[in-house]
Structure formats: structure tokens, C-alpha cells
Amino acid sequence: MIKKVGIVSLSSGIIGESFVRHEVELGLKRLKDLGLEVTFLEHAQRGMDYLKDHPESRAQDLIQAFEGPLIDMILCAIGGDDTYRLLPYLFEDNQLKKVVNQKVF
């Protein structure tokens, strides 16, 4: 049963911006109303500029979400045309392949 959700931002860091705080709070409320425990991965809310400049941090969050035994489901807050920049960091030394396990993604 899915109880714990880890939220990642694989493209834009918009969920870390103050002008969408109300939307993030509404989304969190809806997930919690479904009985889910929600956690944001380390860099998910760092903001648009940070995540644009640090695709390696976005990749690190995804790897940690797959590694983390306390996360049942990985939810992408946003994906888009910048996600391709994570590829070198996900496949370097087969990092993603080493941690992928059965999780809802």
C-alpha cells in the first residue's frame, strides 16, 4: 500500500517560488486528505534559478527517492523541457540503474 510520497522537481523549480505557495499548499492538503505522508526531496523547493543551474541536484533527488526505503511513490511536481539535462548525472556510473527498484513513479 502506498503511504509515503516523495516529491521531486525534475525540470522547473517553480514549486519553490513564493508566487505558487498557495498551489503547493493546496496540493499538499489534497495528498494528505488521501491519507498520504508527503515529503519533498532535498532540492525540490530550491526555486527556479537554483534548479535551472543545478541539474545534478535534480538528478540527485531522483536517485535518493529511489534509494529511500521510506518512500513508496515518487511524484514529479513538474517535468518538462529541461529534464533532459539530468541524463548525464543519472547514467554516470550507472547510478540510476543501481538504485531503481519497484516504486510508483
Short descriptors:
about 100 residues; alpha/beta; Rossmann fold; three-stranded parallel sheet; 5 helices; Class_I_gatase-like
- The number of distinct β-strands equals 3
Main beta sheet strand tally, sense and closure: 3 strands, parallel
Strand order of the largest sheet: 2-1-3
**What's the tally of helices?**
5
* Morphology: flat
SSE string, helices as H and strands as E: EHEHHEHH
Helix content: 40-55%
Q: Give the integer mean of the pLDDT values.
A: 90
Radius of gyration: 13 Å
User: Distance between the terminal alpha carbons, to the nearest Å?
Assistant: 14 Å
* CATH homologous superfamily descriptor: Murein tetrapeptidase LD-carboxypeptidase, N-terminal domain
| Structure class | alpha/beta
**Structural domain count:** 1
Instruction: Name the CATH architecture.
Output: 3-Layer(aba) Sandwich
CATH topology: Rossmann fold
Under CATH at level 1, the class stands as Alpha Beta
Which percent band covers the strand fraction? 15-25%
Question: Which blocks of ≥5 consecutive residues have pLDDT under 50?
Answer: none
Give an overview of the whole structure.
- Residues 5-105 form the LD-carboxypeptidase N-terminal domain.
- There is one protein chain.
- The protein is 40% helix and 15% strand.
- The chain is α/β, with parallel strands linked by helices.
- It has one domain (4-99): Murein tetrapeptidase LD-carboxypeptidase, N-terminal domain (Rossmann fold, 3-Layer(aba) Sandwich).
- The two termini are 14 Å apart.
- The mean pLDDT is 90.
How are the secondary structure elements laid out?
Layout: E1 4-9, H1 21-33, E2 37-40, H2 48-53, H3 55-67, E3 73-78, H4 87-91, H5 95-99
Parallel strand pairs: 1-2, 1-3
